[in-house]
DNA sequence: ACAGGGGGAGAACGTGCGTTCTCCGGGTGG
DNA sequence: CCACCCGGAGAACGCACGTTCTCCCCCTGT
């Protein structure tokens, strides 16, 4: 098996397991079993578990933001694009196996012990906040709107994860609409 | 040493350690060392670590909501009381050793593996949401306001924890003010 | 004074897991 | 055909940690 293919299989398995059950409760042996890649090769690709965790978060970051941006760009106007973020959250929350925000969960699990994981979580959240800010700027709205929209989105992610419901997305969207169009 | 005193010492130590470093990375031996209570007694009081974790979350829940309510009740009018929640969050975020919301963190760490912890997190968040709803009702505002305020507060807690900043509280407060007083 | 027992200190035990090592088969170049 | 080596399977190792056990001191009641 090609090295690149093995790497992808390992990351696929790691993502499913880490996201679904938490990082600390998944052993490297489970990653091996789910990926079909032997421990020897696994450790050649990722010399320690922490590096596998980093690679998992990094690849998921790219995909997550890519999916969001692709969804948002389908909307024609800048105003609609801002609200589309919350529509996408609702879709995401409704997906089978949704278990909250991978970065918030990882931060709860490892933020206090692993600086690298903590830094990656901060980078991901900063990127998401910056993306929201860019949408707000593109719509010609005051930059101060971006912060509250970000907080609504974060609150919705946490709450959807804990309550296993898609409803927070709709609530957040409605609040965002009110902030954008004060009556 | 009295049993009740030992119990309090154990819970004090557990709270400091679990909240500060995460639950899984704190061994029972560390709790013993920090509390000065022998392992034998510790296991008489809490027959397993999970029960200590539950007791920690439960005691913290009572104290947390008590502190919030006490702060809020200092404000004379129902409108001010709603915003006071965010003022209190800002104070809390600024405290030495603040590391985000203990329940959100615990959920990230154990939500997928421990049903009892997950249930306790849900109960705590429901209680907080209900409290916000009661403040909204007392102010004679539409009940639909409570959800967004809750999401803002949750988003602020997560973001303050990750970024180690008190700023999200002020942002959330300002957004809450706009939702309450649309111009 | 002394028998008894509750509690402290910490060793011991079992398990899980991150990481490494061993062994072996099978493909490859000469 | 044969030496060689890459990679797979999984045993082995070391450590951490949850939990239990042992030993002993000290307090108490008589």
Describe what this molecule looks like in 3D:
Chains A, B: This is TetR family transcriptional regulator. Chains A, B: One of its GO terms (molecular function) is DNA binding. Chains A, B: Keywords: DNA-binding, Transcription, Transcription regulation. Two copies of one chain form a homodimer. The first copy, chain A, has 183 residues and is mostly helical. The first copy, chain A, has two domains: 47 residues, Arc Repressor Mutant, subunit A (Orthogonal Bundle); 132 residues, Tetracycline Repressor, domain 2, CATH 1.10.357. At the A-B interface, helix 6, helix 7, helix 8 and helix 9 of A face helix 6, helix 7, helix 8 and helix 9 of B. Chain A binds a DNA duplex (30 and 30 nucleotides) through helix 3.
**What is the CATH C-level name of the largest domain in chain A?**
Mainly Alpha
Largest interface: A-B, 45 and 45 residues
Q: How many discrete domains of chain A?
A: 2
By CATH, the topology of the largest domain in chain A is Tetracycline Repressor, domain 2
Q: Which series of helices and strands of chain A comes N to C?
A: HHHHHHHHH
Poorly predicted ranges of chain A: none
CATH architecture group name of the largest domain in chain A: Orthogonal Bundle
Helix/strand/pairing category of chain A: mainly alpha
CATH H-level name of the largest domain in chain A... which superfamily?
A: Tetracycline Repressor, domain 2
Sheet with the most strands of chain A? none
Count of DSSP-assigned helices of chain A: 9
Distance between the termini of chain A: 61 Å
Strand content of chain A: under 5%
């Amino acid at each position: 098996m090609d090295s690149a293919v093995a790497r992808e299989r390992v990351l696929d398995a790691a993502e499913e397991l880490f996201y679904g059950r938490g990082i600390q409760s998944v052993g490297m042996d489970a990653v091996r079993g789910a990926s079909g890649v032997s421990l020897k090769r696994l450790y050649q690709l990722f010399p320690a578990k922490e590096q596998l965790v980093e690679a998992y978060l990094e690849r998921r970051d790219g995909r997550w933001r890519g999916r969001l941006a692709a969804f948002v760009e389908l909307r024609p106007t800048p105003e609609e694009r801002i609200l589309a973020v919350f529509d996408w959250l609702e879709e995401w929350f409704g997906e089978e196996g949704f278990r909250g925000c991978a970065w918030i969960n990882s931060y709860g699990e490892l933020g206090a012990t692993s600086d690298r994981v903590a830094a990656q979580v901060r980078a991901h959240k900063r990127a998401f906040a910056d993306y929201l800010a860019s949408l707000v700027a593109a719509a010609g709205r005051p930059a101060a709107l971006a912060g509250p929209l970000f907080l609504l989105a974060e609150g919705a992610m946490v709450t959807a994860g804990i309550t296993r419901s898609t409803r927070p997305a709709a609530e957040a969207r409605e609040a965002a609409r009110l902030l954008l169009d004060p009556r």
